[in-house]
Every structure is written in C-alpha cells, then in structure tokens.
Amino acid sequence: MTDCFALLGEPRSVWLDVEGLKGRFQKLSSEVHPDRVHHAPEGERQAANERFVELNDAFHVLASTKLRLKHFIELKTGKELAAISQTPPDLMDLFFECGELCQGTDRFLGEKEAAESPLLKVKFFQQGMDWSDKIQTFIGRVSEMVSALEKELQNDSDQELKQLESSYRRLSYYERWLTQLRERFTALAM
After folding, report:
1. Which residue of 15, 76, 101, 138 has the smallest Cβ count within 10 Å?
2. Is the pLDDT of residue 36 over 80?
3. Spatial CA neighbour of 65 closest among 183, 190, 170, 137
4. What is the DSSP letter of 90?
C-alpha cells in the first residue's frame, strides 16, 4: 500500500493544512510534469509520467478529509476498511429524511417532464423553487455536520481508531447525501 503521506512529505495525521499540501504537491509534480519531460528519452518520460500519476493520486487522497481519514486508518491497521453495511443508528432519521426528499424530488421532476401545458409549466416552476429550497436547507444542515466533524478531527487528531472509523463512515454518508441532493438541485434548475 502506497503511503500518500510519505509520498508528499506530510506527517501521518488525520488533519493537515490542505493549502500547504497543495503547494508541496505543485512543487513535486512540476518536476515530473509531462510538459517538462516531453523531450526526454522514452524511459525517462514513462518514469516521470508514473511518478506524476502517483503524486496526483496521493494529492487526491490527502486533500479529501474522508479519503485521508480512510487512508490513515488503513495505514495504521495494515488492512482495507470493510464496506459500510449499515447506517449508524443516530443517522437513521436523516437517512430516511434524505431518501424522502430525493424520492419526492424525483416524482416532481417526472411530473414536470411530462407536463406540456404552459399553465402547468408555470405551476411547476414555483413548485420547483420550493423543492430547491428544501434541498438547499438539507444541504446546509449536512454541510454543517461535515464542518463540525472536520473541526472535531482538527482539534482532536489523536482519537482512537474506532472513533476515527466512525467519523470516516459518517463522512461517507454525508458526502453521499450531498452528492445525491446536488444532482437533484441541478436537475431542478434545468
């Protein structure tokens, strides 16, 4: 397993300065960027390209709180995390609320798509605004939860692995919900 922290010269930690990481990544990757080695012999270009891809992958992992946390746990335990199989009990109400919001939005979008009458389209415009507001509100709530969890990780980066795994799983749910809701928000805007 590649140690992304070591690859980018970062100490192993659940929290890091993403702006500092970005600067380090840009410095390291500029040395092996394909534009800089395009005149080099084939072997050198290939090695530089592989290193560039490695650095990009490592940056992608460490720049994301969720992926960094997962990587940190896997490095500490020496094994991959098991797939998430069930929703944490304290997130169950949010899970159902998000599901209902997504299903309601999907139904509305289907009805809106089928509408041909100009009067119905006007009616659907206002309803679309209402659905957009509901989605924005839910996105705001989940985003606040993500921020609180990230702040907790930043302030207490010496948590036990079990707590870190729980935080990773929560972030996984939050990010999945945010993705689903943003997709629907975009669909409503069209």
Report:
1. 76
2. no
3. 170
4. G
Of 145, 133, 138, 144, nearest to 181 by C-alpha is: 138
Domain boundary assignment for the chain: 4-63, 89-189
Q: Which is nearest to 13 in space by CA: 27, 3, 22?
A: 3
Pick 4-63's CATH classification: 1.10.287.110, 3.30.420.340, 3.40.50.2020, 3.30.70.3270. Answer: 1.10.287.110
DSSP state of 91: G
Which amino acid, 102? C
Q: Is 86 exposed, middle or buried (0-12, 13-18, 19+ CB in 10 A)?
A: exposed
Residue 88 has pLDDT above 90, yes or no: no
Q: What confidence score (pLDDT) does residue 94 get?
A: 95
For residue range 142-178, what is the model confidence (pLDDT) as tens digits?
Answer: 999 999 999 999 887 677 888 999 999 999 999 999 9
Measured CA to CA, the distance from residue 47 to residue 53 in angstroms comes to 10
Query: Which among 64, 71, 56 has a CA at the least distance from the CA of 26?
Result: 56
Question: Three-class SS of residue 27?
Answer: helix
Among 165, 177, 175, residue whose Cα is nearest residue 14: 165
Give tens-digit pLDDT for 102-131: 999 999 999 999 988 888 888 899 999 999
In this structure, the number of other CB atoms found within 10 A of the CB of residue 94 comes to: 18
